[in-house]
Design goal:
heterodimer, A: 258 residues, mainly alpha, B: 212 residues, Arp2/3 complex 21 kDa subunit ARPC3, two-stranded antiparallel sheet, 7 helices, 2 strands, globular
């Protein structure tokens, strides 16, 4: 089955793709931190951050349409917040509308909260897409390990990444089998079917986990995983990472002072 | 309930990250001491299991659908610390693969759906089953209540984080989040009970695993 949806563009060849995962992770982290600590009224600063992000995305040669489409995943959450906006009562009224019997009024404070959330969420998701689409997950995990994430956690995540494909395949097969037998009936009946499917999946996964462990023991597993490929932190990483982070930090410091 | 970046203030991000990092650290320590090196492949495969189980959608009402969170199931079958570990891996993978939930918001998401959901469901399950006498039927009722409670409490924690960050007013977000998830929680509860009854029939020994 097809799993190309996972880190699909991480095989492209660009300056960004060649950077060390650690550099990219730190840049993304500093970027998000800078974005979320900016006060909402500074639209110029957000424009500047958007410009930085656009530069990073262009350098990485990712298809821009794909990035924009992907960034829409934050929309449901933004909409959920948006429905609360009419209920923020403080501040000057920007406009009021009659919807049926309801008098809905929107205040400037409310609009500001929405704008704040919208722009911050969107910029952050762009940087996360940039990070994960230019880095292969195993490399990213290795980078995270060297940045201090617990070894055990990284190993569990690597195993998970290895078996996600197997288990997801299994779910897809089960779903196909269910649908071809007409998945109908009452809601309770459908939930019961899903319960049985997940139960089967749990038993199979648990048994698979035990078999994998036995196979690993037979091959001399002692609690450590050793790999041959090393990450290499080049000069380009140092220059690019330090200069980009400095620009971000400078922007947010200047922004806080004025 | 996956909070993206940008919805939480820096103070909320920092405090939830500290709590979640501590929780994960302790979960790793407990799993290491109780299971030895066996926990690494087992937790990895079971995290993939929860990840895949979340792909099965069920209809709620009016064309919307929900999916299992799975923290209650993991906590009931394997214990709260194992569940914290598994849910953290699931949430990290969802963030890094699908951008589902933010990077700095991971602390909050792990706190809500990992720590709060796991511990609340584990203790709800234990108290309900012991109150009802511990037979097969009481386990199903316990599973339902535990799973429902885990979703409900996690959504309340999520609402409180949004309020503390100044993103939405308490008087609205709390009833909306709690009300909506009280409904989703019924689905989670019924599926969890369904899984428990299925496992009890086919592999009852897997319900007697050592819980950590």
């Amino acid at each position: 089955m097809k799993h190309s949806f996972l880190d699909r563009y991480s095989n492209l060849d660009s300056f960004i793709h060649k950077l060390d995962p650690r550099t990219k992770f730190i840049i993304a982290l500093v970027f998000i931190l800078a974005v979320i600590s900016t006060p909402p009224i500074r639209w110029q600063v957000f424009a500047l951050y958007l410009f930085f992000m656009a530069a990073l995305l262009l350098l990485s040669k990712l298809p821009i349409f794909y990035v924009l489409k992907r960034s829409l995943v934050v929309m449901p959450f933004v909409l959920m917040i948006a429905i609360f906006i009419p209920f923020i009562k403080e501040g000057e009224v920007a406009g009021s509308y009659n919807i049926g019997l309801w008098q809905v009024s929107v205040t400037y404070t409310g609009l500001q909260v929405l704008w704040n959330v919208l722009i911050k969420a969107w910029l952050s998701i762009l940087s996360l897409i940039w990070l994960t689409s230019t880095t292969k997950l195993p490399n990213l995990l290795k980078g995270l390990e060297q940045l201090g994430m617990p070894r055990v956690m990284v190993m569990i995540l690597s195993f998970m990444y290895r078996y996600i494909f197997v288990v997801v395949d299994e779910v897809m097969r089960m779903r196909q089998a269910r649908d071809s037998r007409d998945f109908g009936g009452s809601r309770l009946c459908q939930l019961r079917t899903i319960g049985n499917m997940i139960g089967t999946l749990f038993i199979r996964s648990y048994e698979r986990g035990e078999r994998v462990y036995a196979a690993m023991l037979a091959r001399g597993f002692d609690g450590h995983s050793r790999t041959l490929d090393r990450l290499n932190f080049s000069q380009a990483d140092a220059y690019f990472g330090i200069s980009f982070s400095l620009v971000l930090i400078l922007t947010s410091v200047v922004n806080l002072l004025y | 309930m996956h909070i993206p970046d940008g919805f939480l203030s820096v103070a909320t991000v920092a405090s939830t990250c500290v709590v979640s990092a501590g929780g994960i650290g302790n979960a790793v320590r407990v799993a290491n001491s109780k299971l030895g090196e066996k926990h690494v492949p087992l937790m990895g495969v079971l995290a993939a299991f929860i990840f895949a189980a979340q792909m099965l959608n069920f209809p709620i009402a009016g064309g919307t659908s929900g999916h299992l969170i799975g923290a209650a199931l993991a906590a009931i079958l394997l214990g709260p610390w194992a569940s914290v570990l598994i849910m953290s891996c699931v949430l990290i993978a969802q963030c890094l693969i699908f951008q589902d939930g933010g990077l700095l918001a991971l602390g909050a998401n792990i706190f809500n759906m990992g720590i709060i959901a796991s511990f609340s469901s584990y203790y709800l399950y234990r108290s309900v089953t012991s109150f009802l006498g511990g037979n097969g039927r009481s386990k199903l009722i316990g599973g339902f209540i535990a799973a429902w409670g885990s979703v409900f409490l996690a959504s309340i924690a999520c609402a409180i984080e949004l309020v503390v960050s100044g993103t939405s007013p308490l008087a609205v977000v709390l009833p909306v989040m709690a009300g909506f998830h009280a409904l989703i929680g019924v689905g989670e509860g019924l599926i969890t009970a369904g899984v428990l009854s299925f496992v009890a029939v086919t592999r009852p020994d897997l319900l007697q695993l050592q819980r950590i």
